[in-house]
Amino acid sequence: MISQHSYFQQCLPALQQLHNMNFTKEQLLQKDFLIGQEKELSMYYSPHNDYINPDAHIIIAGITPGWFQMKTAFKQCVSSQSHHHPLEQVLYETKKAASFSGTMRVNLIDMLDQCGIAKAMGINGAAELFASQRDMLHTTSVLKYPVFYKGKNYTGHQPPIERSALLSHYAFEVFPQELNEIKNPCLIVPLGKAVENVLRKLSSESSLSQHTYLFGFPHPSGANGHRKRIFEEHLREFTEIVEEWAVNRRS
């Protein structure tokens, strides 16, 4: 299912010029893909959050796609298009390749396994959510498209989302509309404090109160030095929440 907020068609002519390129920052962080700018913030189009899985049972939400994910998404999108796949398939393949790609995905899978996600979902391991059981998973970001602050990946803190009209629009209007496209009561895993803060505000809204939230889940990035300690401190709580969600899901 294609997001109603997709910039894909608008960016398609520029996308089609990307064949045989190295996908450098100079090639991708340019005016044809610029969605919005505000002071030292800039938001650029990336094709991997345009596919929405309305049948998902678990939602993993980051703050915003980083440069590595953006580059991976453009590479996959150009490759899929070169094989003349239908648009929805192109966007699905792009999301599958780019979402939480790299070491972050490895860490995330390990953390989900420790929380008992595989048992709760009746699968062999959380890695299957990114492969054969992808239809159970929806990955997304509070800020749908890559945001950069002073040219570096935006982390959710400087400036705070609430102090930016551009970021607030995506976090508190576009993001909840996307979550409302998903039919099932889901287990939502917010990656990091900034995502958690947004979801705590949104979860009080009636349409999003049906979901179960793993609040306190640390960001799986290798750069997060406190990740293991925070995760271990909350692990028992996480496993209990997952077990309870699994029971409710079956009833």
TrEMBL record:
Instruction: Give the matching SUPFAM superfamilies.
Output: Uracil-DNA glycosylase-like (SSF52141)
Protein name per its UniProtKB record: Uracil DNA glycosylase superfamily protein
Q: Which residues form the Uracil-DNA glycosylase-like domain?
A: 50-240
The organism sits in which domain of life? Bacteria
One of its Pfam families is UDG
Q: Which residues form the signal peptide?
A: none
